[in-house]
Every structure is written in structure tokens, then in C-alpha cells.
Fold:
Amino acid sequence: MMGIDEFFAQLNNSAEDILTNFGVNKDIAHLVNVLVLSIGVAILAILANYITKKIIIRFIKKWVDKSNNPYDDIFYEKGVFNKLSHLAPAIIIAQLAPIPLNDFPALIGFIITATNVYMLVVVIMVLFSTINALQEIYDQTPMGKQRSIKGYVQVVKSVIYFVGALMLISILFKKDLSSLFAGLTAFAAVLMFVFKDAILGLVAGIQISSNDLIRLGDYIEIPSKNIEGNVVDIKLSVVKILNSNKTISILPVYYFVSDTYHNWRGLEMAEGRRLRRSVNLDMRTIRFAEQNLIEKLKSQGLLPDTISSETHFTNAKLFRIHLETYLRNSQYFNLNMTFLVRYLQPTENGLPLEIFAYTKDKDLNRFESIQSEIFEYIIATVPSFDLAIYQRA
Structure:
């Protein structure tokens, strides 16, 4: 079967002969032939563009809508098929335009160069759209919700940009790619200096992704830089953090593998939020509890009936027993995790009574409310045990 380029070549040869046989001047016949066939090439390119965009793309859209596979929808939405259709008219022009313009080598060279540049740009756009679609598919997977590959994607895009730029120079200046790569080695030191942040960001990005150091949405705290907020963007060379005061901080990616910071992601993954706070008891008020104090506390429901007045308890121990019972029954804490009501090393400011436990509720506002309620209760209950909170005179 004859190809369209072969048909066009035969038409080019026969059209001029037909015009000459009708008595048209040979030069004029040649010009008319070139003009008519060039218009024909343009019409075919327009027709190819119409067929791909209006017919094939519409058919693909209907097929995507009927398909139960969600991935083809992503490829369509990212414009992979639409961008790919731009190649059709360019291929027609590149294949057929040289036939009628055979006597105009300079013009042919310009058209070929222009179409090659155009197709290179289209291919790069298709590759970027495909990468974006693959990234979105990955982000929807369980692994994608835990680990971002945005850094890797930017690296791949940068490589495509770099290779595309070299290919563009090769097309425009008719240079071999191998000679361009060889010439770049002489400028390697300069390139490393110019792209220092990008190179460091690339290395750091690989370390961050492979070690799962930070993710989008992580709550980061960097006291030395007065930064505290959520990671909202991770790019090749920078990380953007939205602080709790709604300001935005931007740090180089390599900071997160070379310096210290706090990542609160562990809190979100844990089964509770740690509460660790103490109140100082005045040691001058600690003494052995007398029977009347024990009976009074029992009558007020602050001690269980199992506590015997014959046992030598201090009022501090009675309070500690009561507080531990109160906290265990409060339903605030995850008792499967560490739960302690203990004394710390005495100081000149009194005897610290510390609560070390994990609340079930990890929300900051509710956590602070629980913490406040507990210490309000402690302060209000301490006098019932003939104790006092230490305060400097």
C-alpha cells in the first residue's frame, strides 16, 4: 500500500507535468505546483489536528468515563492525551513539507528545525503530564499518604529540563549531543557552584524520602529559629512551613539533614498525648496523718474505706493515693501507656508532685483543657489533706 508521502511525491511530479502540458510556462507551473501542494500540506496538518482533537480525544474521553479504572481518569485530567495530540500536525508537516519545497533547501531546513523544536517541546510536556499523573496515583496509595516523592519528581523533571535544553541546542545549532556533553565537563566546577543549593537539595531530598524524616502536614518545631508550624510544601531545594501565627518560613531542604528540629508526627501516630507537669508541695505541711483527718477524708469521699487509721500514712501519701485514684477514674488517660503519680527530687521550692501520663485525647485545645482541670482540682483539694502548695513569701 502506498504511503501518503509516496503519494504526495508522485502528485508533486505529475502536477507540474499536467500544467506544462496545458501550455503553462514551466517556471510558473513549478511555482503554482509548490504553492498548491504547500497549501495541501497545511490543510492535511489542520485536518490531522482536527481528527486528533475533535474525534480521537472525544473518543478517549468517552472511553475514560465508561471505564471503572480510576487511573485513566487521572491521565486524562493531567492532559496526557491532549498534549500527545499536538504531535499529529507536526509529523505531517515534517514528513510532507520537504516534498513540494525540494528546490528551497534553506526553507526546508528552517521548517524541519522548527517542527523538531516544536515536537521536542510537546514530548517534554507529555512527559511532565505523565509524571504528574503517576505522582497523583502514587499520592492516593497508602504509601503515598505516608511518604512524599515530590523531591524525586522534581529531580526527574530537572533532568528532563536539562536533557531537553541540550537537545534544543543540538537541534538549533546542528551539534552532536555527545560533543555537548563533553564540553560540559569543562564547566563542571562552575555548574556545581551555580547549582549548589539544587545539588544539596537533591541529596538531602533523597535522604529525607528514604529515611522518612518529614512529610507534608508534619508539625515542625525549630526553637532556634522561632519556627513552629505545619509543613505545607517540600520542593527540590526548599521546605515551606506555615507557622502557628500564620506567617510562612522557608528553609533549605538540606537543613533537615544537617541541623536539629522537632517533628511532632510521633504524637499523631501515638495512642496518647503526654502530660508531664508537677506542683510543689510545701514540705513544712507534710506529717503523719491522725485518725480524725483520715475519718474526715473518708466522710468526704476522698479516701476509700480500705484505708486503715492504724497504718502510719502521711497526709502527702494519702493525697497521692487519692490523686492517682481520681486520675485513673477520670477516663482522661490511656492506662495502657505510662501512668505515674510520683515525687521528684525535693528542692528549696518544695517537694514536686509530678503527673506523668498520656491523655487519650491528642487535640491541643482539649488537652490543655484537661490539664487545666486536673491542676485546678489539685490546688482546690490539697487543703483538705492539711497540705499546702509552696509559694514564696
